[in-house]
């Protein structure tokens, strides 16, 4: 019998509906997790409002969710073990282009700013998630599930603060005050900013 799971399917503008759907099948290199926590991102709100993901060719039910963690149920052929807690990076980078090879997977040529889990394919607003093991990272016990669901926006803020070249006692202006801006302000303080304005 097909194993089923509950998901929050986007069924219309500003409309999510709980549906039972088959658990996605694993492909080579995939792992299956039971989702523990999933963030709601500003870009989810955009998709929720417009009723569409980013893949015009997607057919069938679509559910969002790209900031998530969970517990490995089936590690496939990966180095993970059942019971490991993992967080996923939603970026479906190719791993082969010049950008990926230079360690700049966020600028992957085939991603082009759009190829993300929960945008072009179904995400983790679901009980289970199946995806490439190479995008999963093992979580230390000290990081809670809800904290782990914030790793995706946190890495955006961390990257920005690092790129800013911030030095000890610098004064910092963060333009905006959303979740990522809040994180940037906090990280700037921790990096030694003497003053943070938003
Ligand atoms: Zn996001
Ligand atoms: Zn690439």
Overview of the structural elements:
- It is a single chain.
- By secondary structure, the protein is α+β, with helices and mostly antiparallel strands.
- The chain has 2 domains: 4-149, Medium-chain alcohol dehydrogenases, catalytic domain (Quinone Oxidoreductase, Chain A, domain 1, Alpha-Beta Complex), CATH 3.90.180; 150-198.
- It contains 5 helices and 9 strands, in the order E-E-E-H-E-E-H-E-E-H-H-E-H-E.
- The protein has a 5-stranded antiparallel β-sheet with strand order 6-3-4-5-7.
- Helix 4 packs across helix 5 (179-190).
- The radius of gyration is 18 Å and the shape is globular.
- The protein binds zinc ion (2 copies).
- Residues 41, 43, 66-67, 152 line the site of one zinc ion (ZN).
- One zinc ion (ZN) binds at residues 41, 43, 66-67, 152.
Secondary structure: elements and pairs:
Layout (H helix, E strand, L loop, with lengths): L3 E9 L2 E8 L7 E9 L3 H9 L17 E7 L10 E4 L9 H4 L26 E5 L3 E3 L6 H4 L2 H13 L7 E3 L5 H12 L4 E3 L1
Parallel strand pairs: 8-9
Antiparallel strand pairs: 1-2, 3-4, 3-6, 4-5, 5-7
Helix pairs in contact: 4-5
The structure holds zinc ion (ZN) (2 copies).
The site of one zinc ion (ZN) has 9 residues, from helix 2.
Key descriptive features of the protein:
198 residues, Quinone Oxidoreductase, Chain A, domain 1, binds zinc ion
Shape descriptor reads: globular
Indicate the low-confidence ranges by residue numbers: none
CATH homologous superfamily identity of the largest domain: Medium-chain alcohol dehydrogenases, catalytic domain
CATH topology assignment of the largest domain: Quinone Oxidoreductase, Chain A, domain 1
Please state roughly what percent of the residues sit in beta strands, choosing from under 5%, 5-15%, 15-25%, 25-35%, 35-45% or over 45%: 25-35%
Q: Could you give the distance between the termini?
A: 54 Å
In terms of structural class, how would the helical and strand content be classed? alpha+beta
Strands of the widest sheet, in order across it, are 6-3-4-5-7
Helix and strand element order: EEEHEEHEEHHEHE
Helix count? 5
Rg measurement, Å = 18 Å
